[in-house]
Amino acid sequence: MLLEKMQIVHLEEKDMVDTTMLLREHEVGEKAGPETIDAKYIAKLMSNDWGFYYTCTTNLKKVADKLNSYQELKKEDRDDVNGKIQKLVKIIDDQPKTLGWKMRAKVGTSKKWYRDVEEVRR
Hints:
Layout: H1 2-6, H2 13-25, E1 27-29, E2 36-38, H3 39-46, H4 50-66, H5 75-94, H6 99-107
Parallel strand pairs: 1-2
Helix pairs in contact: 2-4, 2-5, 3-5, 4-5
């Protein structure tokens, strides 16, 4: 569920709130579990795909930057979510990257790395 939110290039407020709540309610760990976000799995996915890495880490930083505006959350809750974001980003960054990832990283954002997707309205 976290990866679904983090792959959105143009993250909206509702997606940031959803991500905040998801991180608030689940632990970030290095092993899979029913209530644990598997950071190692996410890091492995990101090590192959620079575009996904860039979008995900950029979005996580946006969520972290927005946390203090969520006054409905207690300070300890905001600190908890921020700590989980920092832990996840560190695990992602520490994962060795593939040669393809490194080559694509050199191009960076000067070349579009995502496909436009229209939101389905019901």
